[in-house]
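name: query_chain
kind: protein
chains: 1
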Amino acid sequence: TPAACRPAVGATPYDDVGAVRGGRTPPTGLISRIRKQWPVRAGNRYGTHGMGVRIETLAAIRVARIRHVGPYEEIGPCFERLFGWAADSGSGIGRVLSLSYDNPDTTRAEELRSDACIEVQGAVAPRDGIVLETVGGGRYAIHAYRGPYRGLRKAYRRLFEAWLPGSGEEADDRPCMEIYRNSPLDTPAVQLVTEICLPLRTTPER
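structure:
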């Protein structure tokens, strides 16, 4: 399994923003600013039986991102900065996602690299530490995990250890991507949907 795609987990990038674990309170005014910009998601198209893995070729996503170096579960303040920047700049928030680059089983926690990302459209001016670029793109195995963020570790392990070996596919060295389809600010933890995107080789080696 590529080092870049081992589970990043056990925590949500929104721990500090959504205060969904530990009961912490976001900075004054931040919740209302996020609520106004978070895209509305209607309906329920995510299955609840089995792994429900699908393979798709995704287009690259133009994002504003902030690099986080350190324990994956401490990425929350980077998202907080991104949401604040988006609100101040008038940039609407599209998809919200994260990328993880290192294997936490073999890399020291203080050296783990990840990116907090929000999709952007139109002309925007980044601030120091915020980078505009395209990420993702290519073939992915996508599992729509439903439930509390603390269950992501188990979902990753099922994807790598149960689904991948018998799938006929091979993971490549691009980073894993998580796309957060709803917000912990107004969604019960059991209804949160996170799309875990495992990058695949274009043509599996035989």
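note: DSSP finds four helices and eight strands in the chain.
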